[in-house]
Design goal:
395 residues, alpha+beta, five-stranded mixed β-sheet
Length: 395
C-alpha cells in the first residue's frame, strides 16, 4: 500500500498486481534468507554452548575414568556401577556395544565429541586404558535451554529489524525501477490533457456547424460527403469526451437529477444513427417502460454512448443493434463478433483491447465501469464468439 500511495498517478489493475507480486516475492525471498541466516546463527550458538560445556564434561569423564580404573583393579570386591548426582553415564566396548548405561536418552552419536540429544547433552570420551573393556564413555547432563531462549529472542528481534531493513531496500529499488514507468505515464497523461484541450474548440465547431446544415437543400453527392464528415466529426467528438472524462474524472462534480432513461436513450440512439448507417448497421430502440433514475445526465449519456459505440465498432457489416429500455434495466445487444467467455472479466480493464483491427483505445468500458460503480449500477455482459454481445445495466 505504501508503494501505491507514493505514486502520483492511477496505475492499472495489472500494474497493481505486478507491484503486489513483486513485493510478495521479494518478501518471501527475504524471509528465506533470514531463515537461512537464523539457522546458521543457531548452529553457531549451539557449538559455542557445547564448547563451554565441554570442559566441565571432560572433568566429569576423568572422574568416571578413575572410578572405572578402581573397579577394574578391585573387580572381585567392587562390581557396583557408580552413580553420580551431577551426571548420568554409560560405557561401550570397541564394537560400540553397551556394557552398562544409566542414560535417559539412548541415542548415541559415536562420531561426535559432544552433541544435543533432545533435552540432554552428551559428551563422548575415549579413555587411554580400556578398563572393564570400555572404549567409549558417554557423559549425560540436562540441557537447561537458557541459551536457546536467548537465541530465539535475538532471532525475533534482529530478524524483524533485518526484514524491515530489507523491505526498505526493496521499496527503494521498486520506486527506482518504476520511475521510468511513472514518468512515461505522467507524460502520457499530460499529453492527453493537452490534446483534449486543443481538440475542444475545433471539434465543437465542426459538430455544431454540421448540425446546422440542411441536407435536403443540397444534391445527393454533396449530402453523402457531408454525411461522411458528420460521422468522422461525431467519432472524434466521442473520443474527445472519453479522454476528457478520464483526465477530469476526479474533478467532475455530479449534477444528479431525475432522468427519463427512455428519453435519454432515444436522444443517444438518434445521435449514433449516422455513425451506424456509415457501417450499414441497423440500430433499433425498444421502449418497454419509462423508468426515472436519479443520476448525472452527462455521465449516463457517456455510459450509454460507450455501449452503443462499442456495439457499432465491433458489429458486422449489415448487422443490427437493439437498445431496450425496461423498468429496471437498459440493454444494448448486437450481432457482432462477440468475445470468448474467459476474456469477459477483463473487458473493464483500461486500455484492454481484444480486437486490434476495430480501432479505439480500450477505455470505453473502463469509463462505463467507473460510472456504474459511482451509482451502484450492476453491469452484466453476455457474449458468444461470432454471434454477438449483450450488455445489461441494471439499477
Amino acid at each position: 500500500m505504501l508503494v501505491l500511495k507514493s505514486l502520483d498517478i492511477n496505475l492499472l489493475k495489472r500494474e497493481k498486481t505486478t507491484l503486489f507480486s513483486f513485493l510478495a516475492l521479494y518478501s518471501f525471498l527475504t524471509i528465506i534468507i533470514i531463515s537461512i541466516v537464523s539457522f546458521l546463527y543457531y548452529d553457531f550458538k549451539k557449538e559455542i554452548m557445547l564448547q563451554e560445556k565441554r570442559e566441565l564434561l571432560h572433568s566429569y569423564s576423568n572422574d568416571l575414568a578413575m572410578i572405572l580404573k578402581y573397579m577394574h583393579i578391585n573387580f572381585d570386591t567392587q562390581r557396583y556401577y557408580p552413580r553420580d548426582g551431577r551426571f548420568n553415564s554409560a560405557i561401550y566396548d570397541s564394537d560400540k556395544q553397551q556394557i552398562f548405561s544409566l542414560l535417559k536418552n539412548k541415542r548415541i552419536e559415536f562420531d561426535k565429541v559432544s552433541y544435543i540429544a533432545d533435552d540432554k547433552i552428551h559428551y563422548i570420551a575415549r579413555p587411554e586404558s580400556h578398563y572393564l573393556g570400555t572404549k567409549y564413555m558417554i557423559i549425560e547432563i540436562d540441557d537447561d535451554k537458557l541459551w536457546l531462549i536467548d537465541l530465539k529472542q535475538n532471532i525475533m528481534i534482529y530478524g524483524f529489524l533485518a526484514f524491515l531493513f530489507m523491505f526498505g531496500i526493496g521499496y527503494f529499488l521498486l520506486n527506482l525501477f518504476l520511475r521510468p514507468l511513472k514518468d512515461a505515464l505522467m507524460l502520457l497523461d499530460r499529453f492527453i490533457k493537452d490534446t483534449t484541450h486543443e481538440l475542444n474548440t475545433p471539434v465543437s465547431t465542426i459538430v455544431t456547424n454540421m448540425e446546422m446544415i440542411d441536407t435536403d437543400t443540397i444534391d445527393e453527392k454533396t449530402a453523402k460527403k457531408i454525411k461522411r464528415i458528420d460521422i468522422g466529426a461525431k467519432t472524434i467528438s466521442n473520443i474527445y469526451q472519453d479522454l476528457t472524462y478520464l483526465t477530469l474524472n476526479n474533478k467532475i462534480i455530479s449534477q444528479d437529477e431525475s432522468l427519463d432513461i427512455a428519453k435519454t436513450a432515444q436522444q443517444r440512439v438518434e445521435y449514433f444513427k449516422t455513425i451506424a448507417q456509415g457501417k450499414m448497421v441497423d440500430i433499433r430502440l425498444e421502449i418497454n417502460d419509462h423508468p426515472v433514475l436519479v443520476i448525472d445526465k452527462n455521465k449516463f449519456s457517456k455510459l450509454l454512448d460507450n455501449l452503443i459505440s462499442n456495439a457499432i465498432k465491433y458489429n458486422k457489416i449489415k448487422g443490427t443493434i437493439r437498445v431496450s429500455v425496461n423498468s429496471n434495466n437498459i440493454t444494448v445487444q448486437d450481432t457482432g463478433i462477440g468475445i470468448e467467455k474467459e476474456k469477459i472479466s477483463r473487458m473493464f480493464e483500461r486500455y484492454t483491447r481484444f480486437n486490434k483491427s476495430a480501432g479505439g483505445f480500450g477505455i470505453g468500458l473502463s469509463i462505463v465501469s467507473i460510472i456504474c460503480d459511482e451509482y451502484n449500477l450492476d453491469i452484466n455482459i453476455e457474449s458468444e464468439l461470432k454471434k454477438g454481445t449483450k450488455v445489461t445495466v441494471s439499477w
